[in-house]
Amino acid sequence: MKKSLILGASFLVWGTTLFAQRKCGIVAIQNHIAATNPEFAAKLQERTANLQQEADNYYAQEKLANTSGKTTTVYSTIPVVFHIIVNSTQLAQLGGTAGVAKRVDSQLAVLNRDYNRQNKDSTLIPSSWKPLYASSGIKFGPAHRDPAGHATYGYEIKTTTTTFVAGSTFDYGSAKHLSSGGLDAWDPTSYLNIWCIYFSDNPTLLGVATPYSLTAAGGGPIPYAQMGVCVSYDAFGKRVNTSDAYAGSGVYDLGRTLTHEVGHFFELHHTWGDDNGDCPWMSTGRDDGIADTPPESDQTFGNPTYTITGGTVYDACKMNGATLMQPIGIPCLDYMDYTDDKAMHMFTVGQVGVMKAQVFSTTAENFTLTQHPSLLNWPAEVSEVEGNSNLNIFPNPTDGQVNITFNEQGSPLNEVVVTNTIGQQIQKIDCSNVKNGNFSVDLSGMAKGIYFVTCNFASGSITRKILLQ
Ligand SMILES: [Zn+2]
User: Fold this and answer.
1) What is the share, in percent, of the chain residues with pLDDT greater than 70?
2) I need a labelling partner for 439 at 20 to 30 A (CA). Which of 42, 48, 151, 321 fits?
3) How far apart are CA 316 and CA 298, in angstroms?
4) Measured in angstroms, how far is the CA atom of residue 229 from the centroid of ligand 1?
5) Domain CATH code at residue 80
6) Rounded distance, CA 355 to CA 75, Å?
7) Ligand 1 centre and the CA of 233: distance in Å?
8) Burial grade of 172 (CB within 10 A; 0-12, 13-18, 19 or more)
9) How confident is the model at residue 9 (pLDDT cuts 50, 70, 90)?
10) Which residues pair with residue 393 across a beta bridge?
11) What separation in Å is there between the alpha carbon of 287 and the centre of ligand 1?
């Protein structure tokens, strides 16, 4: 039985955008495939039914490696690139280039915590669910080399008036190609590509993932160069200030839209099986293929109330005849349900097994993402001079504006000197006695390349290399 949708207060955000409920685009892709390519849709359903087997096989291999002492392999962090494609108003909403830099940093921190059982709100997981709370071991870092080997901060920003729609493959493919006004993927065998855009034909959409299985490489209809994740431009990153602009009047501001979408990228499905409210044992019912996520009739919105000591939330799939099917309730606290960011807390052991199977098995579809650790390192020409860890000069690379933040208690900043690579002084800014910890330098209009920014504090000097691009 399909639950009635909770149509409570709708929030007016950024003009006409309504974000009252989480919405993710992978269902539209799957529905399109079901309507146009039933044979492939049947294969996808068969794979979904076998996902737990993939997890079991992975765990069996892992156990074998453990018992035979072959556990020395260290899997590298996955290099991530954010392609931010917005208009100038949207870029301003993000806080400009500096705001984007902060959102990228906070988003990667959220992914690393959520995928490695380090999210602090795990204290809210009920005791009955705690044994299922699992760590994937998958780590994410900003790419510091682009495909040409040039320095990058792990993101690129394109301001444009071009708008993007779902298109024939329902994955906003036009945003993923320079030729149609977007930005090309960086080699999808080496980088996890994330496009941050405005979904102009579906402004309430938060994100849509394109996993390997839906691309041509996996037998699907979507070009391989479009593999990755698209996210609403104002739904990535974790809120720092109350004034920061985020989708959904603040309920999608903890970075968990990408925790959810990257789960799809690693082949996870929604916990309720996308079957319009049926239960898995019904003739038209489907399941997420994972054994330890209890059956769920439909998506859960909002922030469900349950107690930590074992209180549970049930839905229409609670009973199958006389059998209790949801002894620990529904998976409304799972990253793959539709709740608000603050209500999601975990992946299960089964889900993590599926993701590990895609990433860590040498023949797996996403294995190559772990095989390019050099992409995480800065090219030699921008290696940072070690200095005061409190000093932050960003963004680097920059397109002109350089922000300097510091926490030099009792040691004010007196001047900033910018020199080029042959030691010529390009700019000298007398800022005597700046104590507030925030300063900026404008390098726009100068020739692109490497510069040294020296901050002369009362207590000493610190120099950092900056790439102007
Ligand atoms: Zn989803």
Assistant:
1) 90
2) 151
3) 9
4) 11
5) 3.40.390.10
6) 14
7) 17
8) buried
9) very low
10) 404
11) 14
Look at residue 430 in the predicted model and tell me its pLDDT: 83
What is the rounded average pLDDT of the residues 219-231?
A: 97
Question: What CATH code is carried by the domain that includes residue 397?
Answer: 2.60.40.3080
Ligand 1: distance of its center to the CA of 270 in Å? 6
In angstroms, what is the span from residue 206 Cα to ligand 1's centroid?
A: 9
Cα–ligand 1 centroid distance for 26 (angstroms):
6
User: Ligand 1 centre and the CA of 340: distance in Å?
Assistant: 13
Question: Cα(259) to centroid of ligand 1, in Å?
Answer: 10
Are 336 and 453 in a shared domain? no
Q: What is the pTM of this model?
A: 0.82
Residue 410 pLDDT level (bands cut at 50, 70, 90): low
pLDDT of residue 67: 82
Beta bridge partners, 24, equal 207
How many residues comprise the chain? Answer: 469
Instruction: Compute the distance from residue 19 Cα to the ligand 1 centre, in Å.
Output: 15
The CA 333 to ligand 1 mean position distance, Å, reads: 14
CA quadruple 117, 123, 128, 134: dihedral, nearest 10: 0
Q: How many domains does the chain have?
A: 2
CA of 24 to the centre of ligand 1 (A): 5
Alpha carbons 383 and 404: distance in angstroms, whole number: 18
pLDDT band of residue 56 (cuts 50, 70, 90) is very high
467 CA to centre of ligand 1 in angstroms: 37
Banded pLDDT at 436 (limits 50, 70, 90): low
